[in-house]
Design brief:
Layout (H helix, E strand, L loop, with lengths): L2 H13 L11 E5 L2 E4 L4 E4 L2 H4 L8 H11 L12 H11 L6 E5 L2 H19 L6 E5 L8 H6 L17 E4 L4 H7 L4 E6 L2 E2 L5 E2 L2 H14 L2 E5 L14 H4 L5 E4 L10 E5 L1 H4 L15 H16 L2 H22 L4 E7 L2 E6 L4 H9 L2 E2 L1 E3 L3 E4 L7 H16 L5
Parallel strand pairs: 3-15, 5-6, 5-7, 7-10, 10-11
Antiparallel strand pairs: 1-2, 2-3, 4-12, 8-9, 11-12, 13-14, 14-17, 16-17
Helix pairs in contact: 3-11, 4-11, 12-14
The protein binds pyridoxal-5'-phosphate (PLP).
The site of pyridoxal-5'-phosphate has 14 residues, from helix 5.
Length: 403
């Protein structure tokens, strides 16, 4: 640590609420897959702002669109039609089987909207009393009161925030029998991440998804897929639910949508979207001109640069190489898993020191559940950067005593 960092940290602690456990790094600048701290030290970014900057940092094409739109129309509210919003909706819908979009500002807000839509659809379109939302243990759906209740985790996330809203229940992760036992006439929707992100990069087993789809056919509840982290090409398909052949009734997106500008969306079939009518749901900033123009450009660039395919190829490469590393250090790496560029290396023991050694060596990644090194790099990352990370990890592990 140095004087610049210490000063920034002290100033931060004086004025910013203490909600985050921050990394010992003050970032000043970013470009592509590189981050630069307050002293100018360079880091390889394997996190992309937690799956947000899929196209890399500070793309000139996006800066241009942002600046042009900022000069044309920034905000007028959703009382008006805005072509930028319609263009974005058309582009998003061309990537999936949904029919309608609602734009909002974050992942939690998108999930909140999805929950509201599921309930209102049941109440007003189906005339059904079903209201309950089932989620899976280990999930993460956000920090608003409803989405943190939906989040099936224990610990700080819920502690002290009671009373929590009713109408949520969780079932053990990927347990088809438990899900079947939990579904009843009050089940409005089952909400899942196809790959749990905060839960430690855990893909749903395909057999569980088959059981979920069969149960939907039998019981008629809705499936909400939370694609906040997995969406926008991250897993090597535009949407992670494609890997599983799911047609969600509702799904949500946020993080990667506008490459760093705060934007989320709820997407639904025409049938389910009937649950909303004018005046039932809204948000002031949703789908504003700048955000919509940037997100449209994000989709264009993803297509031009074939970033979805790239994520699939690089992810397969990484998993292959990481698998070799696991074979070399079987006592230190317990498991390697992931889909596309949503990657996890589960260490055999708590890995704070390993994470810290990687940071010192110039690699920014994340440690979840104390032992899962989570990588969510820009989809544009160079293969060489991934190789360099693995070579560095190899050296760090080789120098650690056996667990
Ligand atoms: C799967 C998932 N859902 C929802 C959220 C919440 O998104 P936000 O922080 O934008 O509210 C996250 C954030 O990490 C997430 O990973």
């Amino acid at each position: 640590m140095n004087a610049t960092f210490d000063t920034i940290k002290q100033r931060n602690e004086k004025v910013i609420m203490r909600t985050y456990g921050r990394y010992p790094l003050a970032l000043a600048r970013a470009k592509g897959a590189r981050l630069y701290d307050s002293d100018g030290k360079e880091y390889v970014d394997l996190l992309a702002g937690i799956a947000v900057c899929g196209l890399g940092h500070c793309r000139p094409e996006l800066a241009k669109v942002m600046a042009e739109q900022a000069d044309k129309l920034v905000h007028v509210s959703n009382l008006f039609y805005q072509e930028e919003q319609i263009v974005l909706a058309e582009k998003l819908l061309s990537t999936c089987q949904a029919d309608k979009v609602f734009f909002c500002n974050s992942g939690a807000e998108a999930n909140e909207g999805a929950i509201k839509l599921a309930r209102r659809y049941m109440a007003k379109v189906r005339g059904s009393a079903a209201r309950e939302i089932l989620t899976l243990e280990g999930s993460f759906h956000g920090r608003t009161l409803a989405t943190l209740t939906a989040t099936a985790q224990t610990g700080k996330i819920k502690d002290g925030f009671e009373p929590l809203p009713g109408g949520f229940r969780s079932v053990p992760f990927a347990d088809a029998c438990a899900l079947r036992a939990a579904v009843n006439e009050n089940t409005a929707a089952v909400m899942v991440e196809t790959v749990q992100g905060e839960g430690g990069v855990r893909p749903l087993p395909p057999e569980f998804v088959e059981a979920l789809l069969a149960l939907r056919r039998e019981k008629g509840f809705l499936i909400i897929v939370d694609e906040v982290q997995t969406g926008m090409g991250r897993t090597g398909r535009f949407w992670a639910h494609e890997h599983y052949g799911i047609t969600p009734d509702i799904f949500t997106v946020a993080k990667g949508l506008a490459n760093g500008l705060p934007m989320g969306a709820v997407l639904a079939t025409d049938e389910v979207a009937r649950g909303f009518e004018p005046g039932t749901h809204a948000t002031t900033f949703g789908g504003g001109g700048v955000l919509s123009a940037v997100a449209s450009k994000v989709i264009d660039i993803m297509r031009e640069e074939r970033l979805v395919e790239r994520a699939a190829e690089l992810g397969a490469f990484f998993l292959g190489e990481a698998g070799k590393l696991q074979a070399k250090h079987p006592d230190k790496i317990a498991h390697v898993r992931g889909l596309g560029l949503m990657l996890g290396i589960e260490l055999a023991a708590p890995g704070q020191d390993i994470w810290r050694a990687l940071l010192d060596a110039g690699f920014v990644c994340n440690l979840t559940h104390e032992r899962v090194l989570r990588l969510l790099p820009p989809l544009t990352i160079a293969r060489e950067d991934l190789s360099a990370f693995l070579t560095t990890l190899d050296t760090i592990l080789a120098n650690r005593p056996t667990a």
